[in-house]
Amino acid sequence: MIFNIQRYSTHDGPGIRTVVFLKGCSLGCRWCQNPESRSRKKDILFDARLCMDGCDLCQQAVPGIIERTLNGIVIDREKIEERHFALLQDVCPSQALTVCGEEADVDKIMSTVLRDKPFYQRSGGGMTISGGEPFMSPETAFELFKRSHEQGIHTAVETCLHVPWSYIEPSLPYIDLFLADLKHVNAKIFKEWTDGSAHRVMANLKKLSKAGKRIVIRVPLIPQFNADKDSIISIIDFAANELDVLDIHILPYHTLGMNKYTLLDQPYLAAKKPLDDPELLEFAEKYAHEKGLKVTLRG
Questions:
Q1: Architecture of domain 2-38+103-257+267-297
Q2: pTM, 2 dp
Q3: pLDDT digit string (tens) for 100-146?
Q4: Which of 193, 268, 283, 284 has its CA at 20 to 30 Å from residue 45's CA atom?
Q5: Domain boundaries, the chain
């Protein structure tokens, strides 16, 4: 299940890249910027700002699930079944209501990836698999990495590594670069904010490092979660002392994905304002340099 294929990307690994976004994630990060990627199933996105007065085509398509009231469209999301998504796929003329998620086989995905092979070769780019968490679909990820590798295409993965090692290991020979999140090393705080296990992530990072894979550590700095000096020190110490890595990317928190929660009718539980703390970012950059890491600050 994919929710996007983005061509000509320059932010998800070196060079010009095609990014394949797979649905499904085992974490529930409060600040997730792609909440539509969490479920392994399709989702309905509804933007009331685009909804046309008097139009009831979606209600006609799935009566009893969508209803137009005096206050606008009401969707009973608990009643939505797989068969309803096909009925809603292209029903909305204004695109106020859209279906997020598409079943696509590896052949179809690879046909898109291969289309831009000349650009990869000239720019040092390639294919990146992102998500969600790509390794939540280990067989699909494996096939995409393997086929790209066989075509001489550079491969990268954006991953939180919160999966069993057995989901990752088969793909190792075919992945050139891991863009791996290291959100926190405190198990209690990590659990509270992501509903996951920091120990699983750190164990997988150590195994990747031992396997000799190239890893870029990415640290999203989130207010009230890890945007403080003590957390930054512990994260950078783990990366520098426990892993064989050279690069670390510091990602200051932003709220660009906040509106997606409204589209999904879900609460947004993280800070409502972007991180604005130049002094803290300067500290993080300086401390990482002192630990021998190459630092990139990314907005």
A1: Alpha-Beta Barrel (3.20)
A2: 0.93
A3: 999 989 999 999 999 999 999 999 999 999 999 999 999 999 999 99
A4: 193
A5: 2-38+103-257+267-297, 43-100
Q: Give the C-alpha separation, 48 to 80, whole Å.
A: 19
pLDDT in tens, 223-278: 999 999 999 999 999 999 999 999 999 999 999 999 999 999 999 999 999 999 99
Q: Which CATH number is associated with domain 43-100?
A: 3.30.70
**Spatial separation of the C-alpha atoms in residues 195 and 184, rounded to whole Å:** 12
Is residue 299's pLDDT more than 80? Answer: no
Residues 6 or more apart in contact with residue 114 via CB below 8 angstroms: 151, 153
